Amino acid sequence: MAKIGYGRTREELLDTVKRILDAEGRETSFTDNRPTHGWYYCFMERHPELSSKTPQPLSKQRAMITSEAIQKWMDGLRAYIVEEINDPSLLNDPSRWYNADETPFNMCPRTGKIISLKSWKNPYFFTGSDKKVTTLLACFSAVGHFVPPFIVFPGKYMPRKENPCDKFDEAVFCMAETGFMNQALFVEFLEFFDKEITTRGIKRPVLLLVDGSSTHISLEASEFCHNRGICLYCFLPNATHIQQPCDVALNSPLKTNYKSATKNHQIENPGELINKFNFPVILKEAWFKTTSVSLAAKGFQECGLYPLDINGINKEKFAPAALFEFSKENQPASEQSSSPDVTTNTPSESVSTSITESASTSIANNESSSQSEAEPSTTDKSPSPTDSSPAFRDEPLSCITNVAKTSLKEASHTVTSDSNNSALKAIEATLSPDTLQKYNRRYTEGYDLDIDPLYSAWKILKGSSDIPVQLEDESSVTTVDDAAECNTKPVETKSRNEVESSVNVEEKSTDGAGVKETDQANGKQSAIDKVLTLPKVNIAPKKRKRPVNSFAVSGAQYREFLKEKRAEEERKAQEKGDRKIAAAKKKQEKALELERKKEEREKLRLEREEKKKKLEAEKEARRTERERKKAEREAEKEAKKEAAEKRKLEQKERKSKQMKTK
Questions:
Q1: Global pTM value
Q2: Is the N end or the C end of the chain the one with fewer CB atoms within 10 Å?
């Protein structure tokens, strides 16, 4: 699982064992059937080939890289050098093979574990708060020539008070707003690289290998490299962890030394933060401590670049691709790609195959040694112990299995304890002390797997030494004479599958305890197959095929491609500009239309207000007229009232005068 990118931790291993035990329904002394950490340490001691390691993160695209893809890339590079460059001597001149790659450096690198008191719950480590990144572009050849580093600081302007370039004279410094490489800065690096190889008098053309980042691919870079005799060639996409010497050999030790130098600087200068002024001093120490001729040569060799041979690459790096090949095999026929078929086994079949092969080899060695010491020489010619043919490797396994079965035959179809003991002793005589001790530990603890044919036969005899075992058929049991013929008759050449099938047939011939053990083994195997399954992954759809010589950035075809791409970009930019102008014009027209509508609305508003004022004036005039008429009516009424009062007074006076007259 670790080879294909799905390695398990200690806790996950214990959980897996628990699931296997639960699937089998086996009761153990473990709490809730989960092994303890003590069992884990004993398990690691029993398997010294295993160890705990820190894995390297691997993306899905990188995991799908196969050796066939790398070989195809190498063939394309070789054809480009021989046919287009027309300089086959470049293949045999390591001084003209260069690799360049960027790697970021943090001004505040993280520290590892520190020593503190147990009572301190929150130990601290003094560091800065600058989260910006500084980029280093490293470049070296297959013979160990390291081009001075090209460093990109974050910012727009270089400080004037204190120039950091003075503290690392060999390096080249430049500025970028983000601190990362861009196309313009990469062209500057190419100019610096051209001056460097010219000073050293290196023969042209020179091969410069880079990754397929967009910062490395531009028309300016392609034309400059073509004019200056620099073959700019890209690696296979998502394969730099396999192909690029900077990633394989340089970056990891360089950053380790940088962290160490940073810690030493902070210890020697308490309270001083890492910034662009003291960064060159720290990087210079780490740079010269890391770079060496052997490191450069080893990097190109492990990447299979020089010499250009895929056998130089560690085959384990291609192991994760098997998972995707397995997923392709399990896809429906309509979804399978046109890739070649790859035969894959289930996890249990793979484990069974590997253990069977190792068991057959060890049995062959033990059998050959015991025969040479105990048996007299015969006239019949038998294979020598040094014979490595498949027939010799398969012979002891079948012979020992037959010997185990011969002791199980009796006329009453039962096996006595004496015959079982004799057969058990016959098998144990062929085993080494370490193997016998391991078998006894398996049998006593009852936790190991019954997938070893020899161990299965030994366990049957061990368990049935005191219990009668019924046999199915006499014809299925090999006699002692037949077993003895294994050492005298020439052995026919058989494949491993035929031997395993014959062993399975012989094991099926027993009944009683033998059948019980077989059922237990099948149950355990089914539980293992149920728990230990390969993870299923989704196969990414095939991408558009790359053009011919698409990796040769400075090649003629790729330059034409870049020119067409530049023309296409300019056309798109022109169309985008036209669309912007049209949009601006449309926006202006819309603004004018809005302004016109606004004026119309304002005019209507004024008209409504004028009309409203006129209506209010008319209303006020009517109200005034009503009040005037009302006042006139009241005045008239008041006048009439006064006139009536006056008449009444006059009448009273007349009456009073008449009374006086009388």
A1: 0.61
A2: C
